[in-house]
Design goal:
Layout (H helix, E strand, L loop, with lengths): L1 E4 L5 E6 H15 L5 E4 L4 E6 L13 E3 L4 E4 L9 E5 L10 H14 L9
Antiparallel strand pairs: 1-6, 2-4, 2-5, 3-4, 3-7
Length: 121
């Protein structure tokens, strides 16, 4: 495991586990190879690696951003460290997740998993 600075080569958008998992599945289904995604099983969070500066303009309830001045714990590729693992590891090309695609996938994931009226949440 290592600690890397966010904000220079990438930012990370961090979603609650369920929403992040559904968002990842929507991206995978419609976009194909997703780009780097971290899962933190112990904290039930999913982190999507996006271009630097993305977190500065991102507004979404329950979504946190790690940008300039933040540090992110990442496992070495192919290994899990504690509860942190790569859901989709970096492929070495520098490819990041498109923020527009991520936002659309997040909205679709949230809409597709809302409880039916009267069923609570």
């Amino acid at each position: 495991m290592t600690l890397l600075p966010a904000g220079r080569l990438w930012d990370v958008l961090i979603m609650p586990g369920e929403l992040g998992g559904w968002t990842y599945e929507v991206l995978r289904r419609y976009v194909g190879p997703v780009g780097p995604v971290l899962g933190d099983l112990s904290a039930s969070r999913v982190g999507f690696f996006v271009p630097p500066g993305t977190t500065a303009g991102w507004v979404a309830t329950g979504v946190r951003g790690a940008g300039r001045g933040s540090w992110v714990v990442v496992p070495y590729p192919g290994r899990a460290a504690g509860g942190v693992r790569w859901v989709s590891p970096p492929d070495g090309s520098g490819t990041l997740i498109d923020p527009v695609s991520l936002e659309l996938a997040m909205h679709e994931a949230a809409a597709g998993h809302e409880p039916a009226p009267g069923q609570g949440g």
